[in-house]
Design a protein that fits this description.
CATH topology of the largest domain: L-2-Hydroxyisocaproate Dehydrogenase, Chain A, domain 2
Radius of gyration: 19 Å
Catalytic activity: (S)-lactate + NAD(+) = pyruvate + NADH + H(+); (S)-malate + NAD(+) = oxaloacetate + NADH + H(+)
Strand content: 15-25%
Strand order of the largest sheet: 3-2-1-4-5-6
Active site: 180 (proton acceptor)
Helix content: 40-55%
Binding site for substrate: 87, 93, 125, 156
Binding site for NAD(+): 12-17, 36, 100, 123-125
Structural class: alpha/beta
Bound molecules: 1,4-dihydronicotinamide adenine dinucleotide, oxaloacetate ion
EC number: 1.1.1.37
Number of strands: 14
CATH superfamily of the largest domain: Lactate dehydrogenase/glycoside hydrolase, family 4, C-terminal
Number of helices: 10
CATH class of the largest domain: Alpha Beta
Largest sheet: 6 strands, parallel
Shape: globular
Amino acid sequence: MAIQRKKIAVVGAGFTGATTALMLAQKELGDVVLIDIPGLENPTKGKALDMLEASPVQGFDSNIIGTSSYEDAEGADVVIITAGIARKPGMSRDDLVNTNAGIMKSVCENVKKYCPDSYVIILSNPVDAMTYVAFNTLEFPKNRVIGQSGVLDTARYFTFISQELNVSIEDVHGFVLGGHGDDMVPLVRYTNVAGIPIDKLMPADRIEAIVKRTRTGGGEIVGLLGNGSAYYAPAASLVQMTEAILKDKKRVLPSIAFLEGEYGYDNLFIGVPTILGGDGIEKIIELELTEEEKTALDKSAESVRKVISVVDNG
Ligand SMILES: NC(=O)C1=CN([C@@H]2O[C@H](COP(=O)(O)OP(=O)(O)OC[C@H]3O[C@@H](n4cnc5c(N)ncnc54)[C@H](O)[C@@H]3O)[C@@H](O)[C@H]2O)C=CC1
Ligand SMILES: O=C([O-])CC(=O)C(=O)O
């Protein structure tokens, strides 16, 4: 049988979804199906066609279509869900929970029907709780339901470190653990520049300032944009996770994963280091944490549990 191109469905054709669709096509990771609600069918088709018309200039061969019909997504290998409302200045991500939980359920019912074998990556906020909603609706194995937060949070952390030290972004390593909220946990002890621990390169007060800025990185962009939230770096993060799966790269990346005892939590979706490859979350990497790190992670986990309880009781 002839080798088939991969198929990637992106649900939600707003700022993050449209940007993700274009970046996926530019990297030729597969053909892209961009889906939004029936009332936005024409704008969705228009965005997809506009992107496709960039392909002769940029030289990519991925096809991109816009649609409101999930039949067009049938058999997708990866489904990325960005559908939902975004916050505005003065709001927290958790304020979106009720509206986006309803949207997530209806989207996932369609994904379950038309893309039953897909790997699903969730972006919609509050993303830890939305990944939980998706998991319960899809009833897919846990390795195929993955939330995006840590790649983005870590990217912000690295950006600030590289700016502070005037070093290449390529040489900064480490990651952010926990929920995608203001109490996420950038793991300073595991952060280094080309192997040199970060505390050998920067005074403690500068590290603390970077940790704080990372935690509120989403809000910083919301404040600047005035009418929505970040989309370039979130899209880039989704593309990196998709690439890890479609190319079976076995990247070590933070993902929102379903925990069953790891890190001392049960029945909880939260950001942890994972191996992402051709079978989705192939492994959760469990690290030993200091008491201080575990206390910080417990606080973040408690925040996620509170939002999940809104969903469970809603
Ligand atoms: N986890 C993360 O790191 C990040 C999460 N986000 C979240 O992603 C979500 C999307 O953000 P943006 O793209 O900026 O918002 P946006 O408002 O630009 O786009 C959302 C799109 O979803 C569509 N939509 C709503 N209901 C739908 C349904 N039932 N089926 C299909 N499409 C539907 C809307 O029509 C709209 O086009 C928000 O909840 C935002 O908070 C954004 C950035 C980072
Ligand atoms: O801040 C928001 O609402 C969007 C988001 O999750 C981020 O950019 O980290």
